[in-house]
Design goal:
Dipeptide-binding Protein, domain 1, D-Maltodextrin-Binding Protein, domain 2, 19% strand, alpha+beta
Amino acid sequence: MSHHGVTPRAVLRSVAFLTAGVLTVPALAGCSSKDPAGKPLAGQDIAPAARAEVTDGGTLRWAVDAVPETLNTFQADADAATTRIAQAVLPSMYRMDAQGRPQIAADYLESAKVVKTEPKQVVLYKLSQQAVWSDGREIGAADFAAQWRALSGKDSAYWTARNAGYDRIERIERGENDLEVKVTFARPYADWRSLFSPLYPKEVMGTPDSFNDGARKKLKITAGPFTVKKVDTKADEVTLVRNPRWWGSPARLDAIVLTAVPREERAEALAAGAVDLAEIDAAEARRITAAAGPRGASASPSKAARDDENGDGGGGNAGPARRDQALSGFEVRKSLEPAYTQLALNGSEGPLADERVRRAVARTLDREELARTVLRPLDLPAVPVGSHLALSGQAVYADNSGALGGQDTAAAQALLADAGWVRGGPVEEEQGEKAAGPEGEKAKGKGTGDDGMFIVGQDDKARDVRDAEDGKREGHHLAQDGKQHLKQGGAPGAYAPKGTAAPAGTKTGVVAKDGKPLTLRFVLPSGPGSESLHAVADRITRMLDGVGIRTETTKVSDESYFRDHIASGAYDLALYSWPASAFPATDARPIYAKPVPGADGSLTVEQNYTRVGTDQVDQLFDQAIATLDESESRSLLRKADARIWAAAGSIPLYQRPQLIAARKDLANAGAFGFRTPVYEDMGFLKKGAKVSPRASS
């Protein structure tokens, strides 16, 4: 889950319940002859070039959020940088293609297939005869077996974050020769292709000590086009260099240096020549596009910053004009990230524990407008996401939003009325209401001009003014933060001073029940990169106001957002993202599993932070994961998705934009979309070489 693209591996468990009710699920698209999966909404944008057009040598400096705490992707504190390193230095049996579907990684694997289903499922891997670890040893069954034992969940001495799939294996053995690995499953496992990607050497996986500590800051043995030279926590960078034992196409680059650069400092880092490739936000993208000129135009990348002959530029001392000159050597490559942003509705308590209220909130939303808010200014396809379990182009995708229904104000009002929330009744004044979460008291905002919006732990107006000014600078930040987030019920026709409360008992436009207005706590992150979420939240707030639902919006620090609010359930509404997996039967199940009450009365959740789930959804996931017929498994998952829509615990909104600043002469790198990067093909163009100026698929 992330609100800015990083996907932390949450290991909390929780439980939720869904108010009983009969759900009407329409006929699924999967029953028709036309494949409902469609195509990806946007392709890669990586400046593709033939390897012959790429210079042999050079160092790529690539911005990351932080130097990873571990190089072991199966540990709880692994992050996006961990995954990036693993892709470059370790074997994977499968890689994602442009449609987000798994394909055999031919450098490591000649074939893999289910060779038996009865009495038990058996998968036979045939490895490439050239595939060796960097110490010269062949990759083989011993490595597969060590990884299975470490991740099976049977030995608690291994500090693993996940064991899905590995816990279904019964044994692993050598096949007819050293290049064959035979995996026998105790229980059928549809997502067997998700296993052993990445594959670590037995030296890492073989003992709890080596697993827990041996691969946190170093990887002595690798098997990719690159190997890890150094993890430098003082310099905040990780250096990867060519692997001399790599048997595939040789890496064009000498080295890749992953450098930790805070997102708010990336434009300056690019201008200073400190990095060549960086994920950026929309404001930086506009600035770079304006400086760069038309796509495909040549420029000397960051020459002004790298070689400041006049002594008045580069680094933090460069003036705006000189920084823009330096940025002219970059361009913005854009696609859609394999992740989607959702509106989460916490169904564990309060008004949203009533399924009718959740459905009313969902039916109030114009998802097309929300997608346009974020994506249209970036010239990206503004199409709402129709599935919780996949994105357009992936095998499981089908638009099942019809199980809930589209935007319909009348339907939303009817659902609210059926739940007892009606307009026009007297509303009692609420006193001393607490903020969402543990960080502070809720200020009502009377007389401040910021009704209903505050930043937890911060009450100075200077920050509020800065936020408002930042909003004006952001072209997609559609309203000043908080100006419309809580609609006060003033006396009709009166022009009282701002913040004056209406007389007690006055009839208002808000919906109320037993004298209490329907007010929902909307929690948002306040850190860099969250401006688009604020814009979306503004729109959602106005839409809800149209049916009489109040919102009280709280901004919290990025560190607190997940820990103190999403994971703990201290919110009613929240915006955050989930990645799209090629293996949703495995990866999506913990996100939508029905909460299970603990003996002490607490809820046990996995990653279901909305705390909404049903037995039917759990059963469909269980059936899909145990079905080796791929068509049947897809059908079951689409049925599960339809029921998730109907439960209205989470409303997918839009696929996240992926904006990458890249040197104009950097080839085969940028906005990768679904496809796994090909690290050995990245590099800098030879003089006079050209690349396509358009996104590729």
